[in-house]
Write a structure and sequence with these properties.
- The complex is a heterodimer of chains A (409) and B (238).
- Chain A has 13 helices and 12 strands.
- With 409 residues, chain A is α+β, with helices and mostly antiparallel strands.
- Chain A folds into 2 domains: 3-56 and 282-407, no CATH class; 105-237, no CATH class.
- Chain A has a 6-stranded mixed β-barrel with strand order 2-3-10-5-7-6. In chain A, strands 8-9 form a two-stranded antiparallel ribbon.
- The mean pLDDT of chain A is 89.
- Chain B has 238 residues and is an alpha/beta fold.
- The two termini of chain B are 19 Å apart.
- Mean pLDDT of chain B is 90; it is low at 230-234.
- Classes of the chains: A alpha+beta (409), B alpha/beta (238).
């Protein structure tokens, strides 16, 4: 008897056994259904979180370097305190860097503040006002949706023009074309020449669309003279990221007169740092979550094992008959394993059917969908649960002595 | 060479601190085509002998050759294969699978021997027809009378063309009329060349056999031709 034949026969037997004990099988299934629902939802949520993270991180651009006084992630409080004493990054330093950098495609100094923005009787409080040069639009996910970004001439001339984020456009101009309108920013009047494409939230913390971008020269005159800048550099190509980083470091060390051997007194940040940190944290959260939900699956598995022991005990005589007429150990083992796996697979499908609408609800908050890998994971896990929890009862059945089994009434 | 050759067979059971000698160094030889009844009161070792002859159990000591194969040394799986090939069981309480119809019950040994679907269906229908159940093929055991169930059991026993038909009190759960019918069926099967071993405690049933082995206290008490029958078959083996 081949394995295939045995599986086929086993499937037939288990189907008729399940039909014969509908209520009991149904109740047993419930444990696995709940387990599969929780595992599926957890996996979907984790995937959704990852997706949300990647989506918001993508606004930074993987080929962008962020040069700042502080690093984004400090390993200790001491390190942070030390970096507080670092000298500021001045505009002259940016200027010198931009003249010497060869591996940059675009670079801009950036400074910012929070100010209210008014159009007629509508006001948006605490909008991020960014001052930068015309190359800002070439970096990261910054693109123009309507109109245009300010030119080099407008930037150098310090013209009172701006590009606004999509949130400002919808808040202040609900039924109007914003391009060409004039808004009040702080105490100055600025003309809108473009609207930025929507970027969404950054890690759910703040909106990247609630901002007004003006030429740095205008910013210095109209608002305040910035003391400390951030420099954003888009490198010439992804492969040159590390080279560009080294180049920028070398130039900055020279400009900022860092003695040889001393540590940098500035930080070159990049998107990858976020990803590394997130992956580390994410992996911990994911394994903890899956472990906890796995526990419910484990409980379901114990239920299956229990019911399989009952099933084996009930069918002792049947096992005796089968053995008497030539069923080998493997045949009996497979028969009961198929039954346990069948119950669990069915429960897995049921669990997926329950989980699917719930993932649609989840989709309202996270970019989470029931994906094919998760579906196959859920079915695979339920199958494995069945095989594992069915093994002991099936083994007991397979090892039965036919003489004793036949005598059983 | 004899079909079944039991030499110095002993079977002991350990029950707690006690050892029960169910069979004590018995010697039996049965040839192909014989019709043998094994008799004895309860506790005589009759069931133990049946289990050994049916390859459901192995002896504690001694040699048991079936068709020239030494069964005493076989493991679980080898025994299962041997039973499937060589032994056809007919039990007192039929032992059919309750949820399966007659056809599937009869097919089962063929499934275990690995026969293809089409072939085994053909063969099972053939045998069911042979025992007179062609019109009950898709009935389940609970939809059939005791006699019909026992016929299904006989069909299942025969379907693999076994060397031995081993019947344990085959009429025990049947009324005398249906019991007689089953015994007539056995007689026909024997005349067609089947080897039949009948385990019973009823003289009347045992009388159908051509040879009666009586056991007492784990020993062969007597082994002689049945009265009223000639010890040798009259029909040639086909």
């Amino acid at each position: 008897m081949t394995l295939w034949q045995e599986l086929k026969e086993g499937t037939g037997i288990s189907l008729s056994a399940l039909r014969a004990n509908k209520l009991r099988s149904g109740l047993t299934t419930l444990g696995i259904v709940i387990g599969i629902v929780t595992v599926t939802l957890m996996a979907t949520a984790i995937q959704g979180l990852n997706g949300a993270f990647r989506q918001s991180i993508s606004s930074m651009g993987s080929d962008t370097l962020f040069i700042e006084r502080f690093g984004w992630f400090n390993d200790s409080h001491e390190e942070w305190q030390k970096s507080m004493r670092r000298p500021v990054i001045s505009f002259d330093q940016f200027d010198a860097l931009s003249r010497q950098m060869t591996l940059a495609k675009a670079m801009t100094p950036i400074t910012g503040t929070q100010l209210p923005v008014t159009f007629k009787n509508r006001t948006s409080r605490s909008v991020s006002i960014l001052g930068c040069n015309e190359q800002f639009v070439l970096i990261g996910a910054n693109t123009i949706a309507e109109g245009r970004f300010f030119s080099a001439a407008e930037a150098n001339g310090g013209r009172p023009v701006c590009a606004i984020g999509s949130a400002i456009a919808t808040n202040l101009f609900p039924n109007m074309e914003p391009v060409g309108q004039k808004i009040r920013v702080g105490g100055s009047t600025v003309e809108i020449i473009g609207v930025m494409a929507q970027q969404g939230n950054f890690l759910g913390a703040f909106s990247l669309d609630n901002r007004v971008i003006v030429p740095l020269r205008f910013y210095s005159v109209a608002f305040h003279r910035p003391l400390d800048y951030e420099i954003q550099i888009r490198v010439a190509s992804m492969e040159l990221l590390e080279d560009a980083k080294e180049e920028a470091r070398g130039i900055l060390r020279q400009i900022r007169r860092v003695p040889p051997g001393a540590a940098d007194n500035f930080a070159i940040n990049q998107q990858e740092m976020f990803i590394t940190t997130f992956n580390r944290v994410g992996a911990i959260i994911a394994s903890a979550g899956l472990f906890i939900t796995g526990l419910s699956l484990f409980v379901g598995g114990i239920g299956i094992m229990n019911i399989m022991f009952v099933s084996v005990a009930e069918r002792t005589k049947e096992i005796g008959i089968r053995k008497a007429i030539g069923a080998k150990r493997r045949t009996i083992l497979l028969q009961f394993l198929t039954e346990a796996a069948g119950i669990c697979l069915f429960a897995g499908l049921l669990g997926l059917a329950v989980a699917f609408p719930l993932t649609l609800v989840m989709n309202q908050f996270l970019p989470a969908t029931l994906s094919l890998p998760i579906v196959s994971l859920a079915l695979g896990v339920s199958l494995i649960t069945g095989v594992i929890s069915g093994f002991l009862p099936a083994w007991r059945a397979a090892r039965m002595n036919p003489v004793d089994a036949l005598r059983n009434e | 060479m004899a079909l079944l050759q039991l030499t110095q067979i002993t079977r002991r059971y350990v029950m707690g601190s006690e050892t029960i000698h169910a069979l004590r160094e018995i010697n039996i030889s049965i040839d192909r085509g014989e019709y043998v009844a094994i008799m004895g009161p309860s506790g005589s070792g009759k069931s133990t002998l049946m289990n050994l002859l049916g390859c459901l159990d192995t002896p504690s000591s001694g040699d048991f050759f079936l068709n020239g194969i030494n069964v005493s040394l076989m493991d679980d799986n080898q025994l299962a294969e041997l039973r499937n090939r060589e032994i056809g069981f007919v039990f007192q309480s039929f032992h059919l699978l309750p949820r399966s119809d007659a056809l599937h019950n009869v097919e089962l040994p063929l499934i275990y021997s690995g026969m293809t679907h089409a072939l085994r269906r053909k063969r099972a229908l053939e045998v069911l027809d042979h025992v007179g159940l062609a019109d009950r093929v898709h009935h389940r055991p609970n939809e059939m009378s005791g006699g019909q169930r026992q016929r299904v059991a006989v069909a299942r026993a025969l379907v693999n063309n076994p060397s031995i038909l081993l019947a344990d009190e085959p009429t025990g759960n049947l009324d005398s009329h249906t019991g007689d019918e089953i015994m007539i069926l056995f007689e026909e099967l024997w005349k067609k060349g089947n080897t039949i071993i009948l385990v019973t405690h009823e003289e009347e049933v045992a009388r159908h056999a051509r040879r009666i082995i009586r056991l007492r206290d784990g020993l062969v008490a007597s082994d002689e031709p049945s009265s009223g029958h000639s010890p040798v078959r009259t029909l040639p083996i086909p």
